[in-house]
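Minutes, project check-in
Item: structure for the 540-residue chain
Input as provided by the requester:
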Amino acid sequence: MHRRAMGRVKNLRALVCRWVCLLVILGTLGCRPDLGEVPGRVSLGTTAQVRTLDPADAYEIFAGAVLYNLGDRLYTYAPGTSELVPQLATALPEVSADGLTYRIPLRQGVLFHDGTPFNASAMAFSLQRFIANGGQPSFLLSEPIAKVQATGPYELTIVLKKPFGAFPALLAFSGACAVSPRAYSLGPNQFRPDTFVGTGPYRLAEFDNDSLKLDPFPQYWGQKARNQGIDIQSFSSGANLYSAFRTASIDLAYQTLDPDQIRSLETGARRGRWQMVQHPGEDIYYWTLNLHSPPLDDRRVRQALARLMNRPLIDRRVFYGQVKPLYSLIPTVLRASEPVFAPYGNEQTTQARAILTQAGYSPDHPLDLELWYRSNLVSNELAVMVIKAWIESQLPGIVAVSLHSVESTTAYQNLDQGVYPTFLLDWTADFLDPDSYLQPFLACDQGSEAAGCTAGASKEQGSFYFNPQVNQLIDQERRSHDPQKRQEVFTQIQTILARDIPFIPLWQSKNYLFAQANLRGVSLEVTQKVPFWTLEKPQN
C-alpha cells in the first residue's frame, strides 16, 4: 500500500476510535447523540412568482401561502379541517344582537419580529392599514367594515356596515394578519413589497425576484418551527420544477405541475420513492350561462345542457383523475355542499334528447351551441374539446357545438357586457365559507325578471341571473350566526340553483404536494396552505 494511503487509514482508525470512546462515555452518562437527526433547512420549489409580501396588497394564492407562515391572524383553521379557531384572538367574537358589533379578546405576550409588543392597538392599526392603503384585496374589509378600534389593551371592537354572518371567516384571510406599527405606514399606496414584520413562526430573511428565505422566529408565542428555515425557489416552468424534484434538488414541489408530471410523480410515490399529499381543493370550475342570450334564455335548453355534462369523462380524458367531479357551486371541502346537480347525472342523453325535442330542436332545426373558453389555459381547451365531442356523439344532428376562445384579460373585460352566451370559468374564494361560493354568483343588486340583473354579482359573472327569492335567502344567511339555520338556507339556495341553472358546476381542483422521502411532518390544509413549521428534515 502506498505510504499516503496507509497514513489515511491510520488517521481514519484513530478517528473511529475517538468516536467509539466518545459514544461509550456519553452512553455511560445516559446521553446518546442522535446522529443525523439535527433539523436542517427545507427547500420548496414552485412556479409561482411573489409580487409582494405586503399583506395589504398581496392577493395571489402563493403569496397568501407564504403569509400564512410569516404572520398570524385573529382566526385560522384547525389543522386538516375547515373549522375556524382563534389564533391571535383568544375566543370567537362576541356579537351584538343587531349583528353589527364584534368584540374580540386578544392574546397577550405576543411579540412582532422587530420586538414590538402585540396588543389591540397594533391589531386595529393592521386592519385599518389593510383598508386605508387601498391594495388589491382592500375591498374585502372596506366593504363590510364601518369602524375598527381598540376598546381595551387586549380587546378589539369591529363595527360592520350591515350584518355578515361569515365575517369571522373573512378575518382568517391571509392578508388580515397583524403587522408591526413600527415597521409600516398607514396611507394610500404606502406598501413595502419586499418586507414583512409580523408575529408568525417565521420571519422574512431574504426577498429576491425568484427566491425567498424564511428563518424561524425564536420568540414565537406558539408552536416553534421544527426546522432551521425554509428556502423557496421559483422555477420558470413546471418542467424545471418537476426535474428539480426528481433529482432531489428540492425537498418539496408545490404549485404548479402539469397533469402528466403529476401522474408521473404519483407513480413514484406509490413505489415509495417520495411522498405525495393530495387533498380536494377549494377551486371550482363551471359554465356561466347567459340567460339573455338565445337559446340559453330557454330553461329547457339549460336543463338539457346540464344533462350533457359528462364530468367523469372530463376527469379521465383531460386530468387523469386529478380533479373531482362537482355537483354544486359549493365545493365538497365545505359541509354545506349539496350535490344538487347529481340527479342530472353524467350520461342522461336520452332525457336531454327528449327535452330538446320538446323545445323544438331536431336534425332539421338543430340547436347551435357556442362554448367559450380562455385561450391561454390548455386544460380549458382540452375540456371543451371533450365536451363538444361527447355532445355531438350522443346527439348527432340535434346539437351543433362550436368552440370559441379569447384570452383571459379580454374575457373578464367583456363578461358583464353580455358578449358570451357561455363561458368556462374558475373561481377561488377569498375566504372559506359557503357564502363566498353563492353570493358572488347569484346575488343581484338591481334588476327585474324582464331585464335580468342590471347591477350586481350575477351580472359580473356574465349570467345576468335575477331571482328575488335568492336575494332574500342570501340576505338571510348573511344576517344569521346560527350554523344550522345558515345550513338550511344554503340548501334552499342550491336547490333553486339546480332548478334555474344559471351556472353548471363541472369540477373542483385537487391539490398536490410532493415531498422527498426523508421529510417528516408534511401536510396540506383545506385552504391549500402548507404549514412550514411542522416540517422536519434530518441534517446529515
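Outcome recorded: Residues 1-38 have pLDDT under 50 and may be disordered.
No further action items on this chain.
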